[in-house]
Amino acid sequence: MFEVFQFEFMRNALAAGILASVVCGLIGTFVVVNRIVFISGGIAHSAYGGIGLAFFLGLSPLLGILGFSLAVALVMAGVNLRARERADTVIGVLWAVGMGLGVILIDLTPGYNVDLMSYLFGSILVVPRSDLYLMVALTGVIFLAVGYFYRDFVALSYDEEFARLRGVPVARLYVLLMVLIALSVVLIIRVVGLILVIALLTIAPYITERYARSLGRMIVLSIGLNVIFTMAGLALAYRFNLTSGAAIILVAAAGFFLSFGLERLRGRPVRLEARARDAEGSLHVPSV
Hints:
Layout: H1 8-33, H2 37-46, H3 48-57, H4 61-82, H5 87-108, H6 116-121, H7 129-148, H8 150-158, H9 160-165, H10 170-208, H11 215-240, H12 244-266, H13 273-282
Helix pairs in contact: 1-7, 1-10, 1-11, 2-4, 2-5, 2-10, 3-4, 3-5, 4-5, 4-10, 7-10, 8-13, 10-11, 10-12, 11-12
């Protein structure tokens, strides 16, 4: 199938898939380790309100998703920090309100002819070069932020109370993590859509969590798996004329069930103790 890369749209799709895979492996690792999958899903699905708002105001959909996702992420972070016992209810409400608002605003948009399926299930084959530039910029921002605060994120992920006692500004780091998840959502929507975002964020980190003895290794393995899933899904979509986003997620799901089955057969335990020791050893007082 290498001859298909003579077409610009396939080269753009390949680049978008790799960028999304890298970001999902990086941010998805923190999502899985911190057990905030539901919060991430709430941010992703409520972003549909940003799509509706963008079309209603005549703006770029990606800008609408970016602004709306950031606003929702900040609200969810505040609720989870101040009233964690009610956080799941608030997240569910924001999830529903965001999607409902998006649908209503699109209905009210004069002369609208939007392909909703492309935003719900991805449209990687029609990613323009201008969107690639935005994706590269967002990827750079995410990598710089995680790289600068990496040790503190490790401490936050494995022992929040100990990190707080050592002077780590846990609340501000948590808000930053929510913001990074929102930026990741903007990247991933073009590849697999709003409905399937959470799968690409979490499947590879869930698989690699059982084999990696450090958070850094888990990130690297997750990125590698996501690249494999994305490339295999693109190949299947091209070969059998399938929806690319759904094909990518089904490949990832097949990897998940295969890993789960092998794990049950081998009875291999999850190795969290070594990573927890790494977190304690790498902890320092940050300058957030």
